Amino acid sequence: MELPAQCALLRIFFGEDDRAADGKPLHEAIVIKAREAGMAGATVLRGPLGFGRSSVLHTAKILRLSQDLPIVVEIVDAPEKIDALIPAIKALTSEKSCLITREKVEVIRYGDGD
Description:
The chain is α+β, with helices and mostly antiparallel strands. The chain is built from two helices and six strands; from the N terminus they run βαββββαβ. The strands form two sheets. It has a four-stranded antiparallel beta sheet with strand order 2-5-1-6, with helices on one face. It has a two-stranded antiparallel sheet with strand order 3-4. β3 and β4 form a beta hairpin. The relative contact order is 0.33. The model has no long low-confidence stretch (mean pLDDT 89).
């Protein structure tokens, strides 16, 4: 699969405890949806500390292990493919408190090669 040099990056921020309608972890449901849509790639990042709209701190400190830690899913692909995926992501996250962003990115390398 080839990627154009000018792509889009979709980021979805939410809590580790969030679930999809079928009970699956939300990050897993999003990555599966991205794969089904033929996206170039998706990555799940787990943050040790963060807060969102509610300003409640979520942390991985020893005394408060894994309190709904921040999750970020990043998906990179051609802008039109990202735009086509956004409605599905919005549907998966419709009942969740989350932040969804889209930005332009330049692909330097995708896979082997220079």
